[in-house]
Design brief:
globular; 50% helix; mainly alpha; homodimer
């Protein structure tokens, strides 16, 4: 598994859209807080591999391309351990 | 916006992996509860358009292909209004 503490030091770029706490800064970006680390890793690797087009892939793929497997595991661990917020609005 | 009540009647297939309450039945599937409706719509439309390859796209694209824009809006509204659960494990 990834190292959430190490992941905290690797999310400066991510935090711009996904927040330091994994709550998205705009509703076009997904919340990451409390999402499963396994899923977050698979999504980041899909972006890194260019398996996702459209949407934010133009932004996400270059970001993910710079990440090693260890970085991805650490970042996924960090966000998966953040507490989701819920305002009932959806 | 979508109609969450109508969405509840359209998620029998989704619930198999994402749960009736939006909490994934396995950690390879994303939790949907409390995710923003806008993001959920964009993800479903990306699967429907074939903009996502790899991962679960082989499963998700045929599912999404059967959905109208209204179905997608309703399903997104429904899951966005479910309460996320968090066990701190990540």
């Amino acid at each position: 598994d990834g190292d959430a503490e190490a992941g905290k030091g690797k999310i400066s770029a991510c935090a711009a859209c996904h927040g330091m706490n994994g709550i998205a800064s705009a509703d076009i970006y997904p919340n990451l807080a409390g999402q499963s680390a396994t899923y977050l890793e698979s999504a980041l690797k899909a972006y890194r591999a260019g398996d996702r087009k459209g949407g934010m892939s133009a932004m996400m793929s270059p970001q993910a391309a710079a990440l090693s497997d260890e970085d991805i595991a650490d970042i996924a661990a960090y966000y998966s351990q953040q507490t989701p917020e819920f305002d009932g609005e959806g």
